[in-house]
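Quick start: read one record
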Amino acid sequence: MSLTIQSAERSNAGPIGTEPGKTRSTRRFMAGVSGLAVAVALVGLGSVLRSNASFAEQNVARQMAEQRITFKPAETLTPDERDTPCLVRYAGRALTTGAQAECYANHFIGNHLKKVADGRTYSEMRAVQTELRERLTRAQAANDPGVGDLQRELAEITGKRQTLFEGETVRGLLLTSYGFGTLGSKADQGATVAFAASAVVLLLSLLVLVWARIRS
């Protein structure tokens, strides 16, 4: 009977040579080390994101500087332009950022393009131009006296279409720069979050390691 009781006691006590306190201390130590590894990984992630953000910002600024675009001075803004907050805010300033590119593309170029051909786009003006050319060809074949009027109208439509082409091209390039600038801003925000999370994880890991040392 005594042998049976002693055997049961040994079974409940766990494996021979194992101390529960040391086991918990080892687990705390491993958790702390793992936390330090996570903190280092977060610092690396934050550094990569911050580097990408810096690259995007510098690249956008360089491209905008090469275009040498400047917002209209405040005193030359039209009443419609004065109703656009960003045009008033950036008045007279050189265009160097993604936010400025978006403002100039949508609220300056975009609004002016709507007035060129009653809101029609470059691609929509193609049908108008084609129709006028066909009418002019028929009029010339029939010696129509209205040939001169059609030629002037065609020249006007061609000029408007060229203006729309140039404006929409510049607007597209500016919006592309705006997209890169936005990605750079998001990357910078992600880097800030990664660094903050790294600091929190690092602090918690150090506390766990200290606690494991004390309990050991």
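Residues 22-215 form one domain.
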